[in-house]
What does this fold into?
Amino acid sequence: MPKATLEAWLGLLVGLVWFWACLAHGAADAGRRVAIYTLAVGGAVVVAASWVDAYLQPILWWPRYDVYTWDVFGPFANRNHTASLNAITSILCAASAYDAYRRKSRLVWFFGVIFWMPFTAILMNTSRGGLLILFLGLIAWVTTSAMKRGTLRKLAVGGALLIVIISVASVSGGKLGSRIRGLLQEDNSSVVESSMRVDLARQVVRQFTENPWVGKGLGTFSSVFPQVSTMNNPMFKFWHPESDVLLLLFEGGLLLVLPSSLLLVWIARSSGPWATSRSDKSRDRSGRRLRQAAAIGAGMALIHSVFDMPNHILAYGMQTMLLLGLAIRPQVLTVRSGWVSQSMARMLGLAVFCLGVLWLGIGLRQWAPDLKSAAFFLRGEAIEENKDGRYREALALVDRCIWLSPMDCRLYYFRGQLLLKLRQRPERALVEFGRSRALEPDYAALCYEEGIYWLKFAPEYAMIPWRECLQREARGGSTSTLNYQRMVSASVPYAELLAPLWNLAENTNKQMVFMEHIHPQYWNEYLPKFIEKHPKLDQLEHQHLRLLMKLWHERGNREELIQMLESNADLQPFGWRTLAIEMARQGRYEEALIMAKKFLKRPGKPPIIAGANVPRLERAFLFNPTDVRPGIELYFAQRAAHDLKGARATAERVTLLPDAPAYMKVELALLDAELGDQRRAWEMMEQAMELIPDS
It folds into this structure.
């Protein structure tokens, strides 16, 4: 574990040294102005680079992680981090424009223009959280910096900003607009995600209370949490707890969180307006505006940290720490710093420089020291070697990665794949896959993908991870049959896997999935096994019975099905379509029509108007031949007048219209039956059956 946490501690050291430099810098107003202007312009440059990366040419040195499968926008693999950075940049651009306006500088036009770059990027992104952070930041900046006094005026401006931002985002054509419009609609995925976040937070807090002081070790969440969690969520692998605060609690404990909290309290006391006299405020308005803008930007980043993980990214965190340093009120030092503090600062600066050179070399793949980040780049090289067919070279790199990062389940999975490609004994690969599953004991998709991979080399071994996949889903309370359905579909070319898969179908849902997705040539073989498990078919759920009858008619012995339906009236409501079709094939049209008339769901139709004026309705339909309504009224009026031939001609014209209701085909079929043309009646009834589903 010390080796696994070493690099995390080195990263923490770099962050602390940078934070110390930012807090102790004591910049004058001119230096603070240059820093904020630079951050605003730099943020706009990042937005421009994001557009280039998304629409013109990918920027290769921007990190992309294989744990994210959705499209990304910006320098981070998580769209929420990019949106948060853009929101902070918008505030800094607005503050810079206002500062330039107060100083009568022409830069006001420049910052006023580039303000719209990060704002537009937020609309192009799909992060609702970024829009919320932007709104909070604008409200805070307007009410503290741009407006001096007037509570009602500030509330009015805040409400107007809220309406403008939400309106612009809602009417935008991008994905964000559709996501905001979807807030007022039922969104099951959002409900599931929110519930999962709450459960994840509870798990992290529970683990924190078990070991509150020292935590589990920095940089170990993704490896340790699956081993200690009791969530049993088979749908997701948790790489982080969706919160910087929760991650600090889990990995660092109170020994890390308490000093951080005290430091933030000191910064708040040293940057807020509550310890400044009115005379100081009047003399330092320009500097105060800049400090407040920096404090608001840092506050936005810290608020985001409660619900996400932005500040654990070193680049994002360094900007937050710089903004916190810029928010500190300047103080005049009465005593010059001594040689001890100067020497310590220089030594720490030299150490940070050396670490920077070390990480730069790792990123450029010039060397691979015993650090966890080296395993990330070595794994990338192994993936490239695997793509080029150099499996032994890739295996050597993966062995080195495992030595550097022994708790990464993906590495053992990769090594198992390479052993199979090198035609090693399947047992060796099975051991590696087993280690991968042991390190991630709840994630079901890992087991499913392993089984798919086994099909290429030794199909019989696929049942081992697939069995565990279904067991994990059962432990997690999942009722989804998607993975089982995919297993059955993937096993179609491998007949030897059908019997084990059938044995894994422990409930009716999975058994019906099996019967639906196996190859038709094996259907008759497993139908008796299904009936053996369910001797009283009428006790099955209605949707299962309808599906079984449909499959039986398409793939099984139709004569046996017809005999069973004719002898069992309780099953006829679920198999009447099959029975009616077979009757019609045998020429028993009248019986088929009776069966359809008995069980077909009759859609609603307009009431018959007694004594309707047939000539008037004929003229109305004649002058509006594409309007269904007068045609339907004319049909029912003719039927009421016992003009069956005229009613049939009218119904035939109505059914040819594109928006004719389905019940008119039923009416035409029944009318043909009354006129004695049973065959034509059945043909029309069959068309109606295709349009009208069972309830």
